[in-house]
Amino acid sequence: MARVYNFSAGPAAMPVSVLQEAQREFLDYASSGMSVLEMSHRSAAYQEVIDAAENNLRSLVGIPDSYGVLFLQGGATLQFAAIPMNLMAAGRAGYIVSGHFAESAWLEAEKYGVAECLASSAETHFDRIPALGTIEAKSAGLDYTYICQNNTIFGTMYHELPRTGTTPLVADVSSCFLSLPLNCERYGLFYAGAQKNAGPAGVTVICVRRDLVEFGPVSPYCPTYLDFSKQLAKGSMLNTPNTFGIYLCSKVFEWVQAQGGLEAMGQYNQAKADTLYGALDDSDFYRGTAQRDSRSIANVCFRTPTPELDAAFCQEAAGQGLMGLKGHRLVGGIRASIYNAVTPEAVDALAGFMKSFELAHGSRSF
Ligand SMILES: *Cc1c(COP(=O)(O)O)cnc(C)c1O
């Protein structure tokens, strides 16, 4: 079996042992005589699957009962609309615009109320997390303050969360979810598209403080599907959920726990990130695109001296089994996504390739 080193930003590498376990159970799940794919979501066997997924996540992250957990569809993008429709009670929210996905969420929220941009790093091409000093004052009176905690496209991450006073903090954690510890009680709501680090595409994990949604959505036009209070009451099964996706997520939660949990995962990921950022800092050929104090633990973005060499880099790397390194189409360059299932061995192979590529192409002056 020849598996490549997969640095894709999402859908992304999954733990091999999880894939193997799913393969073993594929035709006959827990002696049910059928695949999870074929099972009614109303069956007792499936109820056990989704309950286990929630319980595994609660114990892994440390989610108290005062927070509800949902497994919905529509990706992170549908949450850009669901969040204002459920949480904009007074019609006013604040957005910190630190990249493309934060900006998209902000623009979407403007359809449902007043969405203020509280801070932005657009002027410096999203190479950093904006300064957070004024956020607490600006958050006063808002329904929520919104952040995108790890900016997948630009390779930046919050190393501390903004203070928001009593205003709930809402976070898109899609690309750093389960990569490092998360203090649930700092958030009013956090959510993640699973395909970065928690499972396959088609599942979005949402964790919300119950008191924020107990009276139902604010918008009378909120689709029933996106009504968090109804979905919580129905255990994410108001309609047919992504049954197989949730089953795989549950296995990933178990796997992360078996690796030592989020604290251990954070150290493991920091060591991988240090390898790559070290390689960038040691070189005059490569240039990291994120400011040092904003560097992401999950997405390492860099460039060679020219776009042509960036393309050659990705092509030659693919020839050596290092896949998924092309930067997002909005920014170009090179991006290595080093989520939980990407091994130190893969990262070392990439660092080695970077050296040899520089030796071959770096002697010319640019
Ligand atoms: C990938 C990503 C999204 C978009 O996710 P979809 O599930 O494709 O809608 C949004 N936010 C962040 C931080 C992401 O990494």
Largest sheet: 7 strands, mixed
Strand neighbour order, sheet with most strands: 2-10-9-8-5-3-4
Class derived from helix and strand content: alpha/beta
CATH H level of the largest domain: which superfamily? Type I PLP-dependent aspartate aminotransferase-like (Major domain)
Helix content: 25-40%
How many structurally independent domains? 2
CATH topology of the largest domain: Aspartate Aminotransferase, domain 2
**How many H/I helices?**
11
Helix-strand string: EHHEHEHEHEEEEEEHHHHEEHEEH
For the residues shown, what is the average pLDDT?
97
CATH class of the largest domain: Alpha Beta
Model description:
With 366 residues, the chain is of the alpha/beta class. A 7-stranded mixed beta sheet has the order 2-10-9-8-5-3-4. Strands 11-12-14 form a 3-stranded antiparallel beta sheet. It has a two-stranded parallel ribbon with strand order 1-13. Helices cover 36% and strands 16% of the residues. Pyridoxal-5'-phosphate is lined by residues 10, 75-77, 101, 148, 152, 172, 174-175, 193, 196.
Map the helices and strands.
Layout: E1 5-6, H1 16-24, H2 44-61, E2 67-72, H3 75-87, E3 92-97, H4 100-109, E4 114-120, H5 135-139, E5 145-148, E6 150-151, E7 156-157, E8 169-172, E9 189-193, E10 204-209, H6 210-213, H7 228-233, H8 243-258, H9 261-281, E11 287-288, E12 299-303, H10 307-319, E13 322-323, E14 334-337, H11 344-361
Parallel strand pairs: 1-13, 3-4, 3-5, 5-8, 8-9
Antiparallel strand pairs: 2-10, 6-7, 9-10, 11-12, 12-14
Helix pairs in contact: 1-8, 2-8, 3-4, 9-11, 10-11
Residues 10, 75-77, 101, 148, 152, 172, 174-175, 193, 196 line the site of pyridoxal-5'-phosphate.
